[in-house]
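Sample pair:
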Amino acid sequence: MSSSDFMEQLNLRALSLLQGDADKIEKLIEVQMENLATRKCPLYEEVLDTQMYGFSREVDFAVRAGLIDEAVGKEILSKLERNLAVLYEALNVKG
């Protein structure tokens, strides 16, 4: 296996792992959207915020290590941040 093949596999693996983690956060957001009645659950919001922070650090590491392109990392984070903003907006309207 050539070094370029190895790097391509490593990049794909990193992207796959990041996408899996993003999907888990997305699921947390979806569950909260389905259960807007639990609006005043600061623990749930704290979990989401903590998950987002940890994920942003994962993305930052992957970018700095050259495992993914910075634009790809920003796009994954932006999508999650937009969905989280929609959730918080819905929670504020509900409350």
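The CA atoms of residues 64 and 70 lie 8 Å apart.
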